[in-house]
Design goal:
The protein is α/β, with parallel strands linked by helices. It has a single domain (about 5-190, about 225-270, about 310-325), classed as 3-Layer(aba) Sandwich (Rossmann fold). It is built from 12 helices and 13 strands. The protein has helices at about 15-25, 45-60, 75-85, 100-105, 105-125, 160-180, 200-210, 230-240, 250, 280-290, 315-320, 325-344, and strands at about 5-10, 30-35, 65-70, 90, 130-135, 180-190, 190, 215-220, 225, 230, 265-270, 275, 295-300. Strands 3-2-1-4-5-6-11 form a 7-stranded parallel beta sheet, with helices on both faces. Strands 7-10 form a two-stranded parallel ribbon. α5 packs parallel to α6 (about 160-180). It is globular. The structure holds nicotinamide-adenine-dinucleotide. Nicotinamide-adenine-dinucleotide (NAD) binds near residues 46, 71 and 190. InterPro entries: Epimerase_deHydtase (IPR001509), NAD(P)-bd_dom_sf (IPR036291). Its EC number is 5.1.3.12. It is an enzyme of class 5 (isomerase). Keywords: Isomerase, NAD.
Length: about 350
């Protein structure tokens, strides 16, 4: 039996956050969730995810509390941190999405920079020693060196979204160095699966295919994404919850990872190490849905990267786990969920 922790999950109504809360409760942890339940996408989906967590906590008689709080609201955050002595904070709340950052940059500055700084300050003031936070594969920008390794230079973001995520890594590193906060930044690679985000390709494409409407296929289908199944992502986060970062140089000597040399701060890729071509992705979706897609081929969008490909050696070495779900199996589970939830 693992040690019982009191864990704050921010972004608890979100795709990854809600799935993580379920996993934590299933494993007997005490979970407090916060989210501002913003309307970037369908609020009902967020509320339904929260209902699932509520149901599970009732069934398992586990401690779950949810508060509607924005990361920018420092007085409410202070009150929350005064009321609970958290062992660990998992910060998943953020303005996600690359394309939206071109039209609404302010949302990214507010949630991802101001909000993230508020979380770091709350940790410092309340002497909380452990942090896990969401970074993104988008920090690798147009890097041609594949697979993407945590040692690669990430100072050339091609979207404001990516710039905020790179900034989070730098901000966390400084707090980690100054105040000894043990932090792990997880670079997620295109997470998909049941209860996914309606602004991401699997959901956009599935909806249009079911409705027999055309889908936009950017870069004429010549894109690759290292799709990572939600259960594998959640397993990775959970294992990191049980194994806080340290600055034990023996761990990363051979990788000569400079970031961890100065602070108990680590960066880990959470990917599938298996890039999938966009045309193949559509083919598998068509097969599972049983309907042919109507394709509208288009040029690449500004801010989009052509290929993502995760080196997951460091993740595996740290938590003794690497994502295992095949793309074909993951899409099957995703389409089953989509059918049940949206079509009935
Ligand atoms: N899903 C992916 O493929 C992916 C890939 C890379 C990184 N990430 C990162 O992982 C994290 C979780 O992503 P997700 O896919 O679950 O996104 P999501 O949008 O489903 O979840 C984020 C949640 O945070 C909440 N939120 C946003 N701003 C907030 C604020 N200022 N205060 C309080 N709550 C706020 C939203 O309401 C939402 O419910 C994000 O940080 C995202 O950038 C996700």
């Amino acid at each position: 039996m693992n040690r019982e922790l009191k864990i704050l999950v921010t972004g608890a109504a979100g795709f990854i956050g809600s799935s993580l809360c379920l996993k934590l409760l299933e494993n007997g942890q005490n979970v407090i969730g916060i989210d501002n339940i913003n309307d970037y996408y369908d609020v009902n989906l967020k509320k339904d995810r929260l209902k699932n967590i509520e149901k599970l906590s009732f069934l398992k008689e586990k401690s779950w509390q949810f508060f509607s709080i924005a990361l920018e609201n420092t007085s409410k955050l202070n009150e929350l941190f005064d009321n609970f002595k958290f062992d660990l904070v998992v910060n998943l709340a953020a303005q996600a999405g690359v394309r939206y950052s071109l039209t609404n940059p302010a949302a990214y500055i507010s949630s991802n920079l101001v909000g993230f700084a508020n979380i770091l300050e709350a940790l410092r003031k309340n002497e909380i020693e452990n942090l896990i936070y969401a970074s993104s594969s988008s920090v690798y920008g147009l890097s041609k060196k594949i697979p993407f390794s945590e040692n690669d230079c990430v100072s050339h973001p091609i979207s404001l979204y990516a710039a905020t995520k790179s900034s989070n890594e730098l901000m966390a590193h400084s707090y980690s160095h100054l105040y000894g906060i043990q932090s792990i930044g997880l670079r997620f690679f295109t997470v998909y699966g049941p209860w996914g985000r309606p602004d991401m390709a699997p959901m956009i494409f599935a909806k249009s295919i079911f409705e027999r409407k055309p889908i936009d296929v950017f870069n004429y289908g010549e894109m690759e994404r290292d799709f990572t199944y939600i259960d594998d992502v959640v397993e990775s986060i959970y294992r990191c919850c049980l194994k806080p970062a340290n600055n034990d140089l023996s761990f990363d000597m051979e990788n000569s990872k400079p970031a961890t040399s100065f602070a108990p701060h680590m960066i880990l890729n959470v990917g599938n190490k298996n890039p999938v071509n966009l045309n193949y992705f559509i083919e598998i979706l068509e097969k599972e849905i049983g309907i042919k897609a109507i394709k509208n081929f288009k040029e690449i969008q500004p801010g989009d990267v052509v290929k993502t490909y995760a080196d997951t050696d460091l993740l595996e070495k740290w938590i003794n786990f690497k994502p295992i779900t095949t793309f074909e199996n993951g899409i099957k589970k995703f389409v089953n969920w989509y059918r049940n939830y949206y079509i009935g």
